[in-house]
Each structure stands twice: as structure tokens, then as C-alpha cells.
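Dear support,

I submitted the protein below through the web form. The confirmation email said the job was done, but the results page showed an empty box. After a refresh the structure appeared. I'm attaching both so you can tell me whether what I see now is the final result or a partial one.
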Amino acid sequence: MVEKEERILRQNAHEVKENTEMIQEMKIYNAMRDGINRGKKRSRKRMFSLGMGAIAAVAAVLLLFPFSGLPIEVKDEPSLQTASTEHWDDFKAYREDSVLDPALASALEQNLVKQIRQSAEKKGFRIDVSGAVTDGRKVFVLYSVQNNTDKEVVHADFSLHFGTYQDPYPRKGTSLEILPGDNRLRAGQTVNYIYSTNLLPSRQYSQDAKLGIILTETSDEALFSSSNKYRTSLDVTFKLNPDMLNNQNYAIYPEQTLTVGGQKIIVKQLLYTPLSTYVDLEYDKSNDKQIFEWINPVLIGKSGDHTEKLYYPDLLTSYNSEVYSDNSKATLIFKKSLAGPLDSVALKIAGIAAQDKDRLKIVVDLNKKQIIEAPGSDLVVVEPDPAEHAEAGEILLRRKSTNDPFSSSFSMSLPSSYTDAEGQVHQTVNKKFSSINFGGFSRSKEGTVVDEIRYNFGEAALEYPQPLTIKIERYWNPVMDTQSIELSPSK
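What the results page shows now:
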């Protein structure tokens, strides 16, 4: 496994103290963000976690998907489901995990995880679903797989159904994590997993849930084959009420506008659940910039003399989740519940990563290896070294910046399609070595950040009408502007 994949699959954040003043918050926040990109070794691996950029890395590491990029389907006899006879220990293995998701850890601490205790068996494999919990926004399913065969396998796919609804492929925002161990399930071994995904708050879900997994053998023949003879599917059905914690949720609807760097952000809802605190946002359509990230957002709640601060939320967008269909909406997810009702709530931010909407493209003359137009002057084309398996029609886009403490927050992201000078749309080429040999994100001790993306137009693109235009999905451009807003606590 290469270093870049290790960074993606072993992300972790530094723990921080919550009573730090703002300037210290900034320093710790930057260190935490930098640590996420450098990566740290963990006792549990995130085996599969999908934003748009993660799918290529996971496929390269696990070789789980056929090269068509489509979800795997296995059509054979159904698995046999029974009540589980597994030894139950009140989710002990999960409670003892040192890097458990804070929302799931909170659910376990409060004994909110519903016991499922259903299993299914087929072809020597057994899946035991031990428990599940949801606050209507996020769902966790805890399960184990036992391998009673003489074959080594890995997960090839997984999904969760609510009635006829299935989390849509490619399951952006869905993750599958392993408790201590690696991603391969060896003969005679039993491994614990945590499946999680985001739910659409506007959707009415059935209580009839079904967890489905597909296992594939790990021989070279099996991994590169499109045949289902190497794969086994198992399904477990159970009841899970998406509204199971509704009577413990507390919501307020501020409908107030926070203006950062001239960009208007409407705070639509604050939702406190036993698992997390959600801040639903809407970006004003008149904004001239596209917002990609929040810089150091802090939620501050006060009740009498007591002040509580929540830090380092995830940002849920259309880029990393199927919850939103466009980039006009987002949700900050603080992985801790802010106790309500409160006397006051404030949302504070140090800035945003945003770029002018009309500058979100890169125009390249492939034959001249020259950038004609880009969001910034710090982006250059570097011709890949043939020794690194570069293909004809492939370039390396490099962006180098210094003295930007926030630039490690995310890497530039580009789509898999581009247009030629006559407006014809083409797809990039995914060759065997195209995602694993060079390119990546790094920061030197001196603070210099290098962000590189390998982009393969394909050999045929050398004959296309030049220049070629790539739309930009995400681009780091910090707009520093510390702002805060008091949010009305009334329902």
C-alpha cells in the first residue's frame, strides 16, 4: 500500500481541549487539519469511506470493483437467516475501541444502540448483526462476519435498505470500518465491522431494514474477474425505526444570515440529538463565490454561567454525500450533543474556503503542456516521468503554496470528464497505474504545501481541438474573515 492510500485510509485527528481561547483554537485547529492529511496509524482501519475522491483509492487498495466502476451484483440463492446464537457481551468489542466514532461512542454510553441479534449463513460464511442506532440523520449498524471456509475474502460491496429504498451508489458518505485488524477476512477468522451512512432528513423511511454485503475471494483471478463464482452475498433483515430517538431530539430554526467574506450563509436549523449536533445551512444563490469548506467553525452554547463549545465538525455537502443534490446546501455535524435548551447559542467562524464561480475551471493546451486559464497563478503543468508509468495524454497538475496554515484542509478535486475546444465532452482514461504511482499532497517542515493531481486525458486527446477545459469540483482558496452570529434558541 502506498503512502497516499495510507493517509486516506488511516485518517485521525488530534484531541484538543475545549476551554482554549480563540487564538489557541486556531493553532490547534490547523494542527488537527494538518494531522488529518499526514495521517496516523490507527488500531482500526477505515476500509471504505466514500467522498468522490476516495473511491479510486479504495478500489486501488482492495481491488474490489470491476473496471466498469459499477456496483457488484451477485445473483444466487438467498442466505439463510436465523436468530443469532453468537455470544453477546453488550457490544464490548465496540465499547473498548479507542478510536470509535464519537457519535457511536455516545450512543453506546447512553445504551441507545438497539440489539438486533440476527444472523445469516451461506457457503461457509456467517454474518451476525448485533445492533443498530440512528438519530434520523446518521445510522450505524454493528455486525461481524465469520469465515468458516478455507478462502481469504474481503468486502466487495455493502448496502443498507429501508423497505424498497437503498442507499444510492456510489454511496457517498457511507463508510465501513474495521475494529482492530486489517481488511482481509482470513480462513477461520471473525471480524467486527461498523457500517454507517447519512440519511436524508426529508425522506420518510420504512422500519423494515436490510443490511446486505458481498464478499469476494482475494486471489488474483478472483479480484480481476467479473464472474460471480468468486463472490458470496449475505443479507440480514431487521426492524429499525429511523425516528427511534425523536423524543430526545431538540430543534431550533434561526433563519438568520451569517456573512463571511461577502458571502451570505443562512442558518436554517440547529438540531440537537443524543448522538450529534447538526447545523443546516443554505448558501445564498446571489453569492459570487462557491463555498467549499468552513475554517475553524465553533458552536458556543451558554446556560447560566456554564459555557460549552463544540469544535471540528464534519461538513456534509453534495460533494461527499447523497443527502444534498447540489452545492447550495450543507450541514455542519459536530460529533457531540450540545445540551438544550440553552439561554443562547452562537456560531463562530474564522473564514471559508471559497472561489469565484466563474473561475472554477482549468484550461490546458495538452500539446504545449501549458495552462491557459486557472483560478490561481500557482498552478502549473508537470509532465510525468515515464518511469512512473505515465501514459500518453497524461499530465501532472502541481500547486505549490507557502505561508498558508490552512492549505492542508483538502486537496483540489477534478471530475472525470472534460471538454475540447469545440465543446465536445470526453471522459478521462483510468489505466492500471493511473491512481497509485505519483501525485498527492504533502507539507514540508518549512510550511510549503504541494498539491498534485495526476490527470489522464487519454492518448486520443492529443488530437482533439485544443485547448481542453476541466471544471473544478473543489479548490482551496482561503477567505479569512472572523465572524459570529447569535442564534435564537426559540423553537
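Response: this is the final, complete result; the empty box was a page-load delay. Confidence is low (pLDDT under 50) at residues 1-44, 50-70, 432-438.
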